[in-house]
């Protein structure tokens, strides 16, 4: 059975452009995978705590030495990792906020990147352990930045770091430049969704 994990980070939640595009893709995915399982994670409705020294130390403390509070922190992270580990397809809604990804998504990534769990260091460099997955990332931007941008590079770099190298970025750009540009961008994104589905 195929499993899809949908991760949303728009402050507008279901009303956000990336959320709406992801929903359209998921609708097609459900049609093609009637027995598939959908997991939804809304990082605005249920924000992940920022990484703190306390949380980092909980991750790096051996299991047998953790306090009850540290174990609770690790259990929370483990739940997030179990969701992403069990998924075959990841669908991320990622608006651009101040030239980068939303802080809610970054804190989620901070809890996903765990040495020895989702990646490991080897003599040949880091190796991602979340393999054999596809990620479709819907990116919405007010201006025009294209694929050669730090936000795009970071998304590919992080996902690749944990082993997810099959990454498709679908852009909707120029949303703040006028209704005509917005409509054109949304039409192009929907066309790409149809091709991916």
Automatic annotation (TrEMBL):
Keywords: Flavoprotein, FMN, NAD, Oxidoreductase. The keyword Oxidoreductase applies. Residues 3-195 form the Flavodoxin-like fold domain. Its EC number is 1.6.5.-, 1.7.1.17. It catalyses: 2 a quinone + NADH + H(+) = 2 a 1,4-benzosemiquinone + NAD(+); N,N-dimethyl-1,4-phenylenediamine + anthranilate + 2 NAD(+) = 2-(4-dimethylaminophenyl)diazenylbenzoate + 2 NADH + 2 H(+). It comes from the Bacteria. This is FMN dependent NADH:quinone oxidoreductase. It comes from Microbulbifer epialgicus.
